[in-house]
């Protein structure tokens, strides 16, 4: 079979797969949407209950399927669990965030790899697109940051869908995290996300959101 014929077979299979999926389920029900977004809350206090490693792997396996530009997949995750690693991470945090991280079963450092584009032959195998990035520092940084942020959002939704609670944190010093965890590598931190089983007694009322007409227009 020629390479072109093989690609045609893969395309037909992909098209049939999505048709089959849409025939099986067209939308989530209201309870499911509540679980991942409309009824979900960010959490800052945690039960003393560990998160199994297999569940962390499952969260990743689900979240990695979210779309990124050119399938670049620049997100890299460091799961901080041990007391020693938490102590190191705490040096980067704003004071109010220290107890949130120290009490969480898991804190994920959501990072991005500035050398993501070197993996494009694996991730985008039907065409070599490394030349879009090689030597183009700003394009690399913009693509890595934008798409790792997307992937971080997929990660949070996947965690909720699989029964975990999440609490994202941006109140920390990226430079300290990068020096502590990613020194002499091509990785850079984006944001942090606590994972575990929430202590709901720490919740307060939901904060306001914009209405559609406040921030959207159809033209």
Give the SSE layout:
Layout: H1 3-24, H2 30-38, H3 53-63, E1 75-80, H4 83-90, H5 98-103, E2 106-113, H6 120-123, H7 137-161, E3 165-169, H8 174-181, E4 187-196, H9 212-215
Antiparallel strand pairs: 1-2, 2-4, 3-4
Q: Can you list the strand order of the major beta sheet?
A: 1-2-4-3
| Most strands sheet | 4 strands, antiparallel
- The quaternary organization reads as single chain
- Give helix % range: 40-55%
The run of helices and strands is HHHEHHEHHEHEH
Distance between the termini: 48 Å
Please give the count of helices.
9
Structural class estimated from helices and strands: alpha+beta
Shape: globular
Number of strands: 4
Mean pLDDT, all residues: 96
Rg from alpha-carbon coordinates: 20 Å
Low-confidence stretches: none
Proportion of strand residues: 5-15%
Folded structure, characterized:
- With 219 residues, this protein is of the alpha+beta class.
- It has nine helices and four strands, in the order H-H-H-E-H-H-E-H-H-E-H-E-H.
- Helix 2 (30-38) packs across helix 7 (137-161).
- The termini are far apart.
- The model has no long low-confidence stretch (mean pLDDT 96).
What is shown here, in short?
The chain has helices spanning 3-24, 30-38, 53-63, 83-90, 98-103, 120-123, 137-161, 174-181, 212-215; strands at 75-80, 106-113, 165-169, 187-196. It has 219 residues and is of the alpha+beta class.
